[in-house]
């Protein structure tokens, strides 16, 4: 009996792997010319690894059903009927998905019935054929099965050592609180696409961030923090260099952090810091030269490759129909996987003799919104339940299907999207708590400067806008900024002055007592927020910057009948000064808002208060001219094909 089961499992595995290989050949090979055969090789392994266990299960079911028949028939028929069953299952799904309407449509039902009859007939044929296998076949097939199992076991043993480091958990005791390191560690966290006003630590009505509320009680919260741009690349470049986008040039037309720029990890590395990054966003990766100054840079490209391969397989697509929230995103492993990779790094690579600089980009709040179960449910209102559940299917949140502004969806849809977005924030907060607890257990937390911020916010219907494009309005620029370092930063302080991401670079250096080189200091537009206890100079002016979105337009043109692009085809500059906010459009349309009276920027005062608008424009122009000039952007090659594919998946390029 055991022998039969082993045989069935082995044979099923072989049949399953063959099915995976066949589908992979069909699914992966018709690639754009730029991608090579070689790049797709791991995809074949992924396909075989996913289908082999399915084949095993199918074969074992048959083995149980056919338990009574003689050994010779068993060894011939189990593989044959397994192959037929796999063909029925995946062939049927493929035809249904590719050529037929929804599964409940009469045409689909008719096909499924016919297909099933065909399968039964085929099984009957296999059965009816007289079994004429030579003697000893059982033994031979048994050996094949044994060899397969041995191979699988060897594979597990090979992978196990690297998994063990993950499972081991905090080592503990290698470094006590206060530690040997003279300088504090630095943990710089970007919660990508997180707008401040949806966090309960910033007064949001929903309890999205209990963990950050605790961080705020132990450190400093900057209540009015601004990003310098409404999207990832320029904002991260500012965070890493302390420079405004007009200085570092990283942006739409120059997708690269230039080599000549001095970055935070470079300066800390020179002072003996062990530097490591975990970034889920392709704009912050090796491809855009963000790895300068890092000992280790994990951009999860391997996970993305595997995911991209797997998501094209029917088996995975079928799984996602039934468990839409169980497989997470097509861009990254999500915050949970990121945390696991970080734990692995601490267990395997962290040098307790040196302070560390750890940078993390968590991408979970970025569209599409599908936090894992049960987090996504947390804020879904009963009235939005059906729509929110529908939106969890990634196809229902296909960015490419969205139209350009103005977007006039019903309140119901904005409500469901907002519920799901808030669920992502709740999930991120839980993952932050998990990370902080882990550092605490390792005895590292209290000697670590923790900085939590974002690179930009998100529109959820304000100004008829969605996502973070075509805008420098407050939902895209207002971001969280919290810092914690016991002994150096006061606990529970809330600072209400305007601060910006350019301030983070000098503040971090000051807090860890690393001197900024004079030539770097000379060009910094920001300033350290550390004083007694913190100091934010009065009369701050802060810039926002959005380049003409021309590289997005082809994608939008495909999807829309809008003929008037002038509504959104414009570059934008913004200036915050006191309660005033001024926006200058490259098309000559300017806007002016009094944020004290009109925080949601509904009442444009540019026409009513022309003198104030002119004064603000003069300030903006003056600030642009006074920002120290830097070298021109370095010549840079095109992004490689795989990076482009990743960015396409994020919805950034067409
Ligand atoms: Zn971003």
Describe the structure in brief.
By secondary structure, this protein is α/β, with parallel strands linked by helices. It has 20 helices and 15 strands.
CATH superfamily membership of the largest domain, which one?
Alkaline Phosphatase, subunit A
- What's the average pLDDT? 83
The outline comes out as globular
Structural class, from helix and strand content? alpha/beta
Overall domain count: 2
Distance from N terminus to C terminus (CA atoms, Å) equals 57 Å
CATH architecture of the largest domain: 3-Layer(aba) Sandwich
Give the helix proportion (percent range). 40-55%
Number of strands: 15
Biggest sheet descriptor: 9 strands, mixed
Q: Within the CATH hierarchy, at the fold level, what is the topology of the largest domain?
A: Alkaline Phosphatase, subunit A
> CATH top level of the largest domain?
Alpha Beta
What is the radius of gyration? 29 Å
Count of helical stretches: 20
How much of the sequence lies in strands comes to 5-15%
Catalogue the unreliable spans: 132-146, 155-181, 324-332
The kinds of small molecule bound in this structure are:
zinc ion
């Amino acid at each position: 009996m055991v022998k039969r089961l082993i045989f069935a499992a082995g044979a099923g595995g072989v049949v399953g792997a063959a099915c995976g290989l066949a589908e992979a050949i069909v699914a992966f090979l018709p690639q754009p010319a730029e991608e090579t055969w070689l790049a797709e090789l791991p995809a074949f392994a992924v396909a075989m690894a996913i289908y082999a266990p399915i084949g095993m299960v199918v074969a074992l079911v048959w083995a149980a059903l056919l338990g009574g028949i003689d050994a010779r028939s068993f060894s011939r028929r189990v593989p044959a009927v397994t192959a037929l069953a796999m063909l029925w299952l995946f062939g049927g799904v493929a035809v249904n998905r590719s050529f037929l309407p929804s599964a409940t449509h009469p045409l689909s039902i008719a096909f499924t019935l016919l297909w099933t009859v065909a399968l039964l007939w085929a099984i009957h044929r296999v059965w009816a054929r007289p079994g004429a296998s030579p003697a000893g076949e059982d033994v031979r097939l048994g050996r094949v099965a044994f060899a397969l199992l041995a191979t699988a076991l060897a594979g597990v043993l090979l992978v196990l050592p690297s998994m063990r480091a993950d499972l081991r958990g905090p080592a503990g005791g290698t470094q006590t609180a206060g530690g040997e390191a003279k300088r504090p560690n630095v943990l710089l966290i970007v919660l990508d696409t997180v707008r401040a006003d949806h966090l309960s630590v910033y007064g949001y009505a929903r309890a999205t961030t209990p963990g950050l509320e605790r961080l705020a009680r132990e450190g400093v919260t900057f209540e009015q923090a601004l990003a310098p741009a409404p999207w990832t690349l320029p904002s991260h470049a500012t965070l890493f260099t302390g420079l405004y986008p007009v200085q570092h040039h990283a942006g739409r037309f120059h997708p690269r952090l230039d080599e000549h720029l001095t970055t935070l990890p470079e300066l800390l590395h020179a002072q003996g810091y062990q530097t490591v990054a975990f970034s889920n966003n392709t704009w912050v990766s090796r491809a855009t030269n963000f790895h300068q100054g890092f000992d280790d840079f994990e951009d999860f490209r391997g996970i993305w490759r595997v995911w991209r391969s797997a998501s094209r397989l029917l088996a995975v697509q079928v799984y996602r129909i039934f468990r839409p929230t169980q497989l997470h995103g097509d861009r990254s492993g999500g915050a949970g996987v990121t945390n696991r990779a970080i734990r692995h790094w601490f267990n395997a690579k962290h040098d307790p003799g040196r302070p560390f600089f750890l940078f993390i980009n968590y991408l979970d709040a970025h569209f599409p919104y599908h936090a894992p179960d049960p987090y996504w449910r947390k804020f879904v209102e009963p009235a939005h339940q059906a729509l929110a559940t529908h939106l969890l299917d990634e196809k229902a949140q296909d960015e490419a299907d969205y139209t350009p502004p103005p977007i006039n969806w019903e309140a119901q849809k904005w409500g469901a999207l907002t519920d799901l977005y808030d669920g992502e924030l709740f999930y991120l907060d839980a993952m932050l708590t998990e990370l902080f607890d882990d550092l605490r257990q390792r005895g590292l937390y209290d000697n670590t400067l923790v900085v939590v911020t974002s690179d930009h916010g998100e529109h959820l219907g304000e100004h008829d806008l969605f996502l973070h494009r075509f805008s420098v309005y407050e939902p895209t620029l207002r971001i969280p900024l919290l810092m914690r370092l016991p002994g150096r930063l006061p606990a529970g302080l809330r600072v209400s002055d305007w601060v910006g991401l350019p301030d983070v670079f000098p503040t971090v250096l000051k807090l860890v007592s690393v001197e900024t080189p004079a030539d770097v200091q000379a060009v910094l537009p920001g300033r350290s927020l550390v004083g007694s206890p913190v100091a934010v100079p009065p009369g701050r002016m802060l810039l926002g910057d959005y380049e003409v979105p021309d590289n997005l337009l082809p994608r939008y043109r495909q999807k829309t009948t809008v003929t008037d692009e002038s509504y959104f085809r414009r570059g934008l500059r913004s200036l915050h000064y006191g309660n005033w906010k001024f926006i200058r459009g490259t098309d000559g349309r300017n806007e002016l808002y009094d944020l004290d009276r009109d925080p949601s920027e509904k009442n444009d005062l540019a026409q009513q208060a022309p003198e104030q608008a002119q004064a603000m424009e003069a300030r903006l122009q003056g600030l642009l001219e006074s920002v120290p000039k830097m070298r021109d952007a370095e010549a840079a090659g095109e992004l490689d094909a795989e990076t482009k594919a990743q960015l396409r998946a994020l919805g950034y390029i067409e």
